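Notebook entry, structure prediction.
Reason for the run: the old model in the group folder had no record of what sequence produced it. Starting over properly, with the input documented here first.
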Amino acid sequence: MARTPWYRLDNVGKYYSSQAGRAGQTVFRFAATFVDSISPEALQRALDRSIALFPGFNVKLRSGLFWHYLEPADEIPQVEPERLPICAGLHADLNSVLMRVTYFRHRINLEVSHMISDGRGTLEFFKTLLNAYVEERYHATPALPSEPASTPERRNEDSYTTNYERSKAGATESEKVYHLFGWKNTAEPTFMEYHLSASAVHSAAKDMGVSVTSLVIAAVIVAIRATMPPAKRDRAIRMDVPVDLRAIFGSETLRNFFGLAFISYTPGSSDAPLEDIAHLVQTQLKTGTEPEVLKRRMNRMLKIEKNPFISHAPLFLKDGALMFANWMAAQEVTTTVSSIGRITLDPATEPYVSDINVSTSTHGMNFLFCTFKDVLSIVVSSVYVRHDVMRNFCRVFTDLGIEGVISVNKTSGQVDSELTQAHFEQLSRRIAEERRQGSKR
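New structure, fully documented this time:
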């Protein structure tokens, strides 16, 4: 009897596998809006074809004595109408497939667990799915080859281990970090889609002499700064920015393979203008994305994993240690800002797609953006009841003369309920502050 093939989890996948079966799993969602309503039959055929090309996405999580690992699913999952919340957890039991394809009216959604891939790897699978759907639905012939150029071995490579150099591991400097605070609704996070003219944002960034990424990150900093209590303005607004490592190491893997650059800004007693902050961000991004800096941080992550005390610990102890490591990492940043960059589709597919956006689950607040055609789509995911940072973020672009379109995953009734809770939270904090001031008199 032939043995069932299996896949090792990569370094990042091992960290995220400690979330298995729990609430708050890390999930990516790619969504494409088509010009016509979605055909479930054509979408199922497209998914069947895509998984035949990329079987590494159709997997289940298994547990050994020392590590989790991945095993091919028994069958291809069925596409379904969208019923679950955005980025709902994918792992519930032994038979859970770590990806999900759903549809709603004109939209196709692909959700993938971070255990098996990152944003860049998932994008390649998503583009293949869209191309196959257009072939099945509209009988359009792709202009580009449908077969991947790389070999299955290269696509499934654990590029972290392949490029690990123990002697080049380095630590990241620590500092006092500002943390967002307030009442949370972890059961029903808010997902805000913010659509802007990509050319208008590019023009504004060009006028400042910075990149679009630097401008968006600076806008996040300004939005958070406006909500900081005066007593905490001596703390750094610090964010991690995922960086694709494939080009640096010549990798073609579709599994996780990214590093982190860190951006830090401490407001102090004065408010620097947006343009100055954007230039500061640009400088830090340039330094933080240098290959040697990224290699040092990557090697440090692997050095921890390969510590014999950790690698030989039983799985239940290892999961606890990895969850603690994830919690510690979260304490080192205020938020995460991710860029997928400009998304281009096959020339035969692109006319049928009007919009693409990307989002991710969160334990706090995340910003993820991409560009498709002339639309810069920024998705803010947040568990916080108050939406001050979101409002301030949109106001930054309005002040630049760039109007945007906003959509939120909640009804007006849910928003009203959260506004009531936010008002009560603000009132409670004001009363507590007045009592503290009174006790000092």
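Summary: The CA atoms of residues 234 and 270 lie 11 Å apart.
The old model has been moved to the deprecated folder.
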